[in-house]
Design brief:
With 253 residues, the chain is an alpha/beta fold. It has helices spanning 2-20, 50-63, 109-121, 184-200, 216-227, and strands at residues 34-36, 68-71, 81-83, 88-90, 125-130, 203-208, 231-234.
Length: 253
């Protein structure tokens, strides 16, 4: 009976420790419900901007039980493309950005701050989409500008190889727009901007676009500076043809 009492006491103590232990946010604490807070046409909403719509929807988002919201890239993107054969067009969604300016197709900088404030008041934390792997340098930036032929771009080393000093991951598309995230200048500038999102735009977490383009160690370096226990998630995908022929995913669509 004495042994049984000791066993019950030990189990009770362990359960108490589990309940009281702080969840590991970066390791999946399991306490958050994340809402994808935009879609591919959100940058083209009229007459209201997407940030204005989010401001109005913030109370509903909070009441529905969401604790975090994945927001679109905040950096300005004026790119565009047209496919005459298919009759489709796009661009400007933030994934081919050219500057850290927050006045984007989703709305103005004041509208962004207003939306994040409204979401925060509703108990919903902002997780920003960030795109450190590639950018559009065909348009001049005022807040950030990475010059060519200084080993700040993947194509500054010809050919770029796994052992190259001009990149540390897979190329996005042709790789011509890929930044060299292993460069101290590029890496530190990204780190500075992530802090800016945290300190001035209410970022409580980051969603990293195309994580195949840089190493896990790079993300760890950035997140230790941003907030070692802050939330982060990465986009990792492959097209079917990139898998071995013996893998069923090779023929998946």
């Amino acid at each position: 009976m004495k042994r049984l009492s000791l066993l019950c006491a030990a189990i009770s103590w362990l359960l108490t420790c589990v309940v009281l232990a702080a969840p590991g946010v970066r390791n999946g604490g399991g306490e958050d419900v994340i809402l994808q807070g935009f879609h591919w046409n959100s940058s083209r909403t009229t007459p209201q901007t997407w940030y204005e719509i989010l401001t109005q929807m913030a109370p509903t988002i909070g009441r529905d039980g969401f604790t975090k919201i994945w927001l679109p890239p905040t950096w300005v993107d004026k790119s565009s493309w047209v496919d005459a054969n298919s009759g489709t067009s796009g661009g400007g969604e933030g994934y081919f950005w050219h500057d850290f300016d927050k006045n984007s197709n989703y709305g103005s900088e004041p509208q962004l701050k207003q939306a994040v404030d409204a979401l925060s008041s509703a108990g919903v934390q902002a997780v920003y989409d960030v795109v450190p792997n590639h950018m559009n340098d065909n348009l001049p930036g005022t807040q950030v500008r990475f010059l060519r032929r200084l080993k700040l771009w993947r194509t500054d080393c010809i050919p770029p190889t796994p052992a190259s000093s001009c990149d540390e991951g897979d190329p996005f598309d042709s790789g011509k727009a890929d930044l060299n995230t292993s460069s101290p200048e590029v890496s530190s500038r990204m780190m500075q901007e992530f802090r800016n999102l945290r300190d001035n735009y209410g970022a409580k977490g980051l969603r990293f676009d195309f994580v195949r383009g840089y190493t896990p160690e790079r993300v760890n370096l950035w997140m230790k500076d941003f907030g070692d226990q802050a939330f982060c998630v990465g986009e990792l995908w492959k097209s079917p043809g990139e898998f071995p022929a013996s893998d069923w995913r090779n023929k998946a669509s």
